[in-house]
Amino acid sequence: MSIHATAFKTLELQRVARDFGGQSALANLSLSISSGEFIALLGPSGCGKSTALNCLAGLLPLTGGRILMDGRQIDRLPPEKRGFGMVFQNYALFPHLTVEKNIAFGLEMRKVPRAEIKTRVAEAIELVQLGPHARKLPGQMSGGQQQRVAIARAVVLRPPLVLMDEPLSNLDAKLRLEMRTEIRRLHQSLGLTTIYVTHDQEEALSLADRLVVLRQGEVQQVGTPQDLHEHPANWHVADFMGYRNLLDGVVEQSRGGSATVSVAGTGITGSTKDPVAPGDAVKVGIRPEDFDIADSLTAADSTTQLEATVEVVEYQGREFAVEARTDAGQALHIRTHRRAEPGQRIIVSARHERVLVFASSMDSGTP
Ligand code: ATP
To answer: Of the CATH numbers 2.60.40.10, 2.130.10.10, 2.40.50.140, 3.40.50.720, which one belongs to the domain with range 245-359?
Structure first.
């Protein structure tokens, strides 16, 4: 196959920073990326994801730190000298050029011989399954097809690194899932190294080998999807990893990595990595799927049980999303296979090892 990525061994971001008019948009981003990795930058709007990507691409000068590729400093090189592939949310195709010509454009700029351009463009079109559309203009195609063209245009250049900025956010839900699989397939089969920006936790978890969670320009945690899912460093990361119940409480007692917290008057026990002490304000994190519903209270040392009343039930395919409220007024989000009806009294239980207790201070647990 003539399309395959240019190899490098490591790409090193060392305390990369970017300010805008004295305001920090990105601070101290340090990350070592190996060839072939798929990295997702994840975080809420305004956390600095696009800034990080644009710094990598060379579209924004750094205001601090360095970027090294195999030990060579590249952060002063203009974008074209870095030669990274870029895929944007809005596709950024040339509207007056056909699919073929859009894909060929970068190769023509690089003065690649005509015959080679022809072969590589044909191959790229084949890769993204756009054969029947090769002569169409972008405006004659769907959003998903246009995004395939944008991806083909990026990978045809055999870039050492492909940077993707929310490439699927303009597509409908079904197409998003299809394109997600497509992107992962291309990443693997072409041996790409990909950095992918998204605010969609599910997308990041399903695509990436490693995730970087950002908040207000600062790295909160770097790790594999499993790491972050099972061991979020703080409640901000937990929030992104599906801990929909982040309940405010005050520590009653804490010993040996376990803490009992008073949440709206009820004691909930969980594990903690933070040095919390009685009287500290904390957040208790529980994923909706980690709650069980029972009919009656049972004595068990390893679980916390709460009495609650069902308020809203939503059928979601194989499961129900239930919103319930404890007698003390605490709202709970639950996912369950059991049917429940609004108004029904239920016992909600959570095993201690599935409950995480986080210090509520903003930067707790930041590595
Ligand atoms: P979104 O998902 O909304 O695109 P993001 O995580 O990509 O958000 P950035 O676009 O990187 O966030 O922005 C980070 C911060 O830097 C924000 O506070 C933003 O207002 C600021 N910022 C970004 N670009 C500029 C600019 N050109 N001038 C001034 N401030 C900027």
So the answer is: 2.40.50.140
